[in-house]
Amino acid sequence: MKSAEYWKKRFAMMENDRHLQSAESAKTLERHFERARIEIQDDIENGYSFVCMGEDNIPHAAFKFFVGEDPTYRVIEQGSWKNDNTYGTIHRVASDGTIKGVFSQIVSFCEVICPELRADTHKDNNVMQHLFEKNGFERCGVIYVENGTPRFAYQRCAR
Fold this sequence. Notes:
Layout: H1 4-46, E1 49-53, E2 59-67, E3 88-95, H2 102-113, E4 117-121, H3 126-134, E5 138-144, E6 150-156
Parallel strand pairs: 3-4
Antiparallel strand pairs: 1-2, 2-3, 4-6, 5-6
């Protein structure tokens, strides 16, 4: 049987490990937020960032949209794109959740600019998958983003 002193040291080591893991997690989050800040700044500078304003003149959603090739869509696995037409890509949709149907409004806005649309999402993002399908997108396969993680790829053809 282990002594009380042994268990004190063991719990102290475990507590120290937890602090180290928390510190590493915080550093990882900081890197992700910094990367996201840079990406959004680039989107703004390139004219790809859009904001959905409410009647209260408060921004309630934001997204990235651009027309032209998305390099991460060059290779698609477990399926194929519906066509090779010029397309617009919707990325980084974020909403505060206060406006019902905001994604449908985003799609309507984008399809005026380019009627062929593509987008992608994480396999665990069931809400976004539902919104894509509700708005006429079809799952076409799997693409991989720059860091190598897979995403479900969706396409909505011109109507």
